[in-house]
Model the fold of this input.
Amino acid sequence: MKHITVFCGSRVGASEAYKDGAILLGKELVKRDITLVYGGGSVGLMGVIANTVLKEGGNVIGVIPKFLEEREISHLSLTELLIVESMHERKAKMADLADGFIAMPGGPGTLEEFVEIFTWAQLGLHQKPLGLLNIDNFYDPFIAFFNHMAEQQFLLEKHRGIMLVDSSPAKLINKFYNYEPPAVKSYLKEDGQI
Done:
């Protein structure tokens, strides 16, 4: 586990606990010699975690689309800043660089990034661990919705376990080391027919 991609908000949120959680996660990454990969911004929880990792002597790779970089919200002190053409390219690059993924509290963009990477795992496009850092129970309603999808048979039980959850950065990363991806989803029967 050398690189972890973190999805998080471009705002700090209503609770001081979110900022504190970003600081704890940043320190934990440095303690384990894990490079932070993230969206390249200098604002919100994105800026907090990047600043923490840099302050603690760690490495940070930011990936930002050109249109956001041009708005001058990119972080100018990163170990490396990769400028890409689109949001799609950004997500693909962040996925390629990652050995695992963590979603911290954030808005629709954070959820969209996490759900896409979850779906890729479900389809067998990667076998990397992914988890929710459930600071101050932020993700409880989201977790309940995933449970509802499973209960209503839109999510296989074996795929529900793709989403690792903890409120502690250290415990969540520990779960990454023990993660075993589920078998790849298939609609084909043994004879190759649908």
Summary: The helical segments are 16-31, 44-55, 66-69, 87-97, 108-122, 140-151, 157-160, 169-177. Residues 3-177 form a domain with the Rossmann fold fold (CATH 3.40.50.450). The mean pLDDT is 93. The first strand starts at residue 3 and ends at 7.
